[in-house]
Amino acid sequence: MVTSGKPGQTVKPESLVTSNEGGIKKKPQKKPFDTMNNIVGNLLLNLTSSARFEGSLNMDLNEITMNLVPFPQLHYLVSSLTPLYTLADVNIPPRRLDQMFSDAFSKNHQLIQADPKHSLYLACALLVRGNVQISDLRRNIERLKSSLHFVSWNQEGWKTSLCSVPPVGHSHSLLALANNTCVKPTFMELKRRFTKLYKKRAHLHHYLQVDGMEESCFTEAVSSLSSLIERYDELDATKDLPIEDQRRLNIVI
């Protein structure tokens, strides 16, 4: 509801209101992907903030790849952003710092349809912007990690980044990047849709007209996808296994 400035008078945004020009005010037409593009743009701004601004603990893209991808085949990262907003979302209420960390691991803030909290983490990166201290990072990681499932051989698989410059209009923000087995259903659905079309050989002729493209390329692609799903299945099978205490190395001085 939009108030007109006078007590007791409200106007619905969907209603037809006479404009100052004497005509009928038309609803502004939105482009269909503006909201989605705004969210992706905010994600990229947070991802590259360490390269553009100063911070006490900056992180570049090479460090993300180095720390979050333990195996070449398993390089698909799940991203979540908090606060989750677009350019049209003005005056959104600020989030408390601890709530922001909790939101980053909830399924409602993931940018794909997934629930990482009930799947297995291989590694996780937290990119924070704003007036946040390293002690705040450590405290929230300790608070949350008991509810998250990490692989037994990488229980301390966290990578953190602090950028002192917050997003415009916000005191702080958080981008979480996770290498998590929750992406497996996405690949399974992709394989199901592909198989459904491939059995009918639908749209196949468009691709076979391209030089160098052969039908064997499709079978190789689905075989690679099946292999990827199997790797995630193997990791998921270890989720409920007891974690053995790893012996620490004794460093002789």
From TrEMBL:
> What does UniProt give as GO cellular component?
cytoplasm; microtubule
Q: Name one GO molecular function term.
A: GTP binding
Q: Which Pfam families match?
A: Tubulin_C
Record-level GO BP terms: microtubule-based process
Source superkingdom? Eukaryota
Q: Does the keyword Nucleotide-binding apply?
A: yes
Q: Which residues form the Tubulin/FtsZ 2-layer sandwich domain?
A: 57-192
Region (Disordered) residue ranges read 1-30
Name the UniProt key words of this record, in alphabetical order. Cytoplasm, GTP-binding, Microtubule, Nucleotide-binding
Q: Where in the cell is it found?
A: Cytoplasm
What start-end ranges are recorded for coiled-coil regions in this protein?
Answer: none
Q: Which family does it belong to?
A: Belongs to the tubulin family.
PANTHER family assigned: TUBULIN (PTHR11588)
The name on file for this protein is Tubulin epsilon 1
Q: Which organism is it from?
A: Sarcophilus harrisii
